[in-house]
């Protein structure tokens, strides 16, 4: 699940190479310093069963937890919402520093995992039968939660990307088919503006994860990092692919072909409702978010459709991902074996997964859903009955190869956000932004004890 929040206030995780593990022994039983599983938000069905404390923020988490507890006599989930995204991460970081008070299981976005892995704050799930669920996920989804043969979380949902567009705007300005390439996207944007139409899309500074995904689509590899070699990292943010993407969007921004509005704001949503944007470059979770935010419920109902993400080279298409969350076991877990049962089994049953996708809360990564007739052939109301899973999102997810994230994603996003803001203000070119970003991140990595290759 992607967070519907901005990164305007960011507290980077303080890294220190070589931190000791936070929890107890490796036998999976006892010795942990996690918070006690009391004051549960949910009902405990089997009072005699051991409890596992879970921090998670999925919108339908109450139902998911009830489903798990009703199906298990051996372990029960004690759930609390410790905040969505950054507030939760900051609280978790505090418990890591204190070496006590963490939950047994925590919901984390995939791009945040490495920053906690490097602090030995998460447990390798491989010894706890993670291989048994491996078959349920695509290679890309599994790569996002793994480091070599170690598995640090159980995937739940993802964000294969696509192009959402306004059918009424396209029809009004003679855009007969959605752009298949980014060159076609720019041409269509210019045509709509020349005819007096709205901006074609948006280059908001507060969605650096989106921009990073588009950089990766072009062929960029921003970071190369292996947890087995903690000391060393490769940073490539001034490569030609990154410059090409930043220059592309800088050009659209300078020409007024796309907006510069921060996304997930009241003004942005009002623009979506009012047809201020012809397209929305986003992910499979977007329909649920937009519907919940009031898009597609009034005069704009039935005006949205979705097409594959434009490509740089249609002969060599690249699928990318924005967002996605997973359940990890913390090193402080009081009973790591039971915690692993929860991490691997929570939001993995048919009832929870079905509720998740039918209410558009998540785009599930579990292949039992992705191959089911109900999901494959679902006609999504937001897209006026379009079979978007079959035609767009499932092919994109199955083609996704995974990504390599850095140990300091929060800090990197903050710096990229600042560079995008400079581009939109006309204070930097894409080339300049890429070079400055490279220099900043190399300096930061070195200050944190890394050797930058």
Descriptors for this entry?
18 helices; single chain; 2 domains; 453 residues; D-Maltodextrin-Binding Protein, domain 2; seven-stranded mixed β-sheet; alpha/beta
Protein architecture, described:
With 453 residues, the protein is α/β, with parallel strands linked by helices. It folds into two domains: 51-157 and 323-381, Periplasmic binding protein-like II (D-Maltodextrin-Binding Protein, domain 2, 3-Layer(aba) Sandwich), CATH 3.40.190.10; 159-320 and 404-452, D-Maltodextrin-Binding Protein, domain 2 (3-Layer(aba) Sandwich), CATH 3.40.190.10. The protein is 38% helix and 14% strand. The strands form four sheets. Strands 1, 2, 3, 6, 11, 12 and 13 form a seven-stranded mixed sheet that branches. A three-stranded mixed sheet has the order 8-9-14, with helices on one face. A hairpin with a 2-residue loop joins strand 4 and strand 5. The chain starts with 50 loop residues before the first strand and ends with a strand. Mean pLDDT is 92; it is low at 3-14 and 18-27.
